[in-house]
Amino acid sequence: MYRPDGIVQVVSETRERLLRAAGNVIHRDGVRALTLESVARAAGVSKGGLLYHFSNKRALIEAMAQARVAEVRVAMEHHHERNPGTGPMTSYVTSLDTAPDTHLDTALWAAAIEDPEAVTAFRQAFAEFQRTVRTSTADPTMATLVRLACDGLWLTELVGLDVLEPDERTSVMQRMLALAAESADHPVDEEVRR
């Protein structure tokens, strides 16, 4: 809701600052150091100010997951708006670069170890996207393979296991984009699909 006095924008800015602070606390001190007090202190707000936005630690982690899912969705939507002829897989692959992993990603994976239910937004987003893959691509199996490759690249980069040289990564991205386009464009024989 818009209010002319600017309160809504201030609330949003404070909320974003709290989410960034939570990610920073996890990065700096580990997931066990994530407390409402540590996040409020890192964000420069009172604990009451934090509680206005997040009633408990799980609500904070859930909001972090929702924020990251929203970043990827926005990146995909922007790609599709600029390239209306492309399918959802192409937008998904390009989100690796247009919504690159942030400190929020690694913080969330650390938090997921302690409280897997708090990152339900990730599970729901992946399930929703897989439903899209099944219903809006000509070759859902190929599209799923591309999605899994894309997720694998994201996760290896996220945890620092990536050993690709920049030109290798570029080649991998180009191949995933080509396969994504192929999965969207070429009908598959119904016998193969079953």
UniProtKB/TrEMBL annotation:
UniProtKB keywords: DNA-binding, Transcription, Transcription regulation
GO molecular function, one term: transcription cis-regulatory region binding
Residues annotated as domain HTH tetR-type: 12-72
Annotated region of DNA binding: 35-54
Superkingdom, natural source: Bacteria
Protein name per Swiss-Prot or TrEMBL: TetR family transcriptional regulator
Source species of the chain: Allosaccharopolyspora coralli
